Amino acid sequence: MERTLNLTPFTLRLQRNIFFLIVIVFFLSSCGTRKYTVKSDTKASKAADAMANLRSKALYRFINEWTGVKYRFGGLDKNGIDCSGFAFLLEKEIYGVTIPRISREQANVVRRKNFDNLKEGDLVFFSFGGNDVDHVGVYLNSGFFVHASTTRGVIVDDLTLPAYQRVLVKSGSVN
């Protein structure tokens, strides 16, 4: 005696739908187990580490609030700011220190420090156009600093890059 299965169209559709459901669940669960890694040697991850390692949470908040604000020569607000204006506001708001408004004059009031002895909040000065100081940033840690870049706005950058090392002319603390 032979047995035959009498499958109705409804039963066939149900089996097919269950099969597809199992395949979809399997696929989605396998996507969830994929591990994504960020290379720890990328510039962005190192900048993020420098921010995460700030001792001053007020400094961390200040930088986050200003990151991405565009550069504007003479600017002093979130519609646009220049490098010396950014350093001026940061030093005043975070450290309660009033420094001159112009980077060249700011360089005159800092006590010179060796690059290896820089601390969070120290100022770093550059000369992109010759002998005079024409750019300033604020040192964070691990070779990173924050500044108002003429092309990228307020940004955390790597001070150890050759482009910055060639034009770094002075570094030091205000107090």
UniProtKB/TrEMBL annotation:
<keyword id="KW-0645">Protease</keyword>
<keyword id="KW-0788">Thiol protease</keyword>
<comment type="similarity">
    <text>Belongs to the peptidase C40 family.</text>
</comment>
<dbReference type="Pfam" id="PF00877">
    <property type="entry name" value="NLPC_P60"/>
</dbReference>
<keyword id="KW-0732">Signal</keyword>
<protein>
    <submittedName>
        <fullName>C40 family peptidase</fullName>
    </submittedName>
</protein>
<dbReference type="InterPro" id="IPR000064">
    <property type="entry name" value="NLP_P60_dom"/>
</dbReference>
<dbReference type="InterPro" id="IPR052062">
    <property type="entry name" value="Murein_DD/LD_carboxypeptidase"/>
</dbReference>
<feature type="domain" description="NlpC/P60">
    <location>
        <begin position="53"/>
        <end position="175"/>
    </location>
</feature>
<dbReference type="InterPro" id="IPR038765">
    <property type="entry name" value="Papain-like_cys_pep_sf"/>
</dbReference>
<keyword id="KW-0378">Hydrolase</keyword>
